Amino acid sequence: MAFAFTFTKTLILLVSLSSLLLQTHAARGPRTVQARLYSLCKPTTNVGLCYRTILPEVLGLPRFNYYKALEVEMLVTQKQVEKTSKLISVLLARPGNSKDLGDSLQICKEQYGNIMDSMAEAKNQVAQRNVIEARFKFSSVVSYYESCNDSFTKGTSPIVEEAQGVYDLAGNCLDIMKAIQDRESRRRRGTGPVTSP
């Protein structure tokens, strides 16, 4: 009888400890993901935007993954590029545009097409975990953005807000690629963490 009571008491204690450990792990998990994401986003072009756009997609993951964060930011960037491209097409179709505005919008339409092509190539490289080549392909996104931006006379761009979103998100992607590249380089030299990015 005493043995059964002690066994039951021990079993209850083990179940309680297991439950407590699971709760602690569950509570600590999201904070760890948030802390690692903040660390990744801190040196990016737009820290707040990086954190806000990636967090909802990585919060439920069992562990933080740099490539997943990059894929999320690239997808958000793609959506912003598509939104800006649609706006350019709408503005270009308006009757009564001045010649200068029409020419600038036409340049932007071509540049944003180039941006989409570069992003598709970079996305393929990221899928293959070739961040060096992905960064090379993706760097042209900023060049194309600048070509569009420079086509407008100062203060006349009708896509300032949307284009700024493209610039910030693209900059974040490049910064995350650099962080992954640096991390992988440290690992190859044996001076960094051994966990996968």
From TrEMBL:
Keyword set includes Transmembrane: no
GO function terms (MF aspect): enzyme inhibitor activity
Signal peptide: 1-26
Domain Pectinesterase inhibitor: 32-176
This protein's UniProt keywords: Disulfide bond, Signal
SUPFAM superfamilies: Plant invertase/pectin methylesterase inhibitor
TM helices/strands, residue ranges: none
SMART domains according to UniProt: PMEI
Top-level lineage group: Eukaryota
InterPro entries, per the entry: Invertase/methylesterase_inhib (IPR035513), PCW_Enzyme_Inhibitor (IPR052421), Pectinesterase_inhib_dom (IPR006501)
Family recorded in the similarity comment: Belongs to the PMEI family.
PANTHER family: PECTINESTERASE INHIBITOR-LIKE, PLANT INVERTASE_PECTIN METHYLESTERASE INHIBITOR SUPERFAMILY PROTEIN
Protein name, entry field: Pectinesterase inhibitor domain-containing protein
Source species: Glycine max
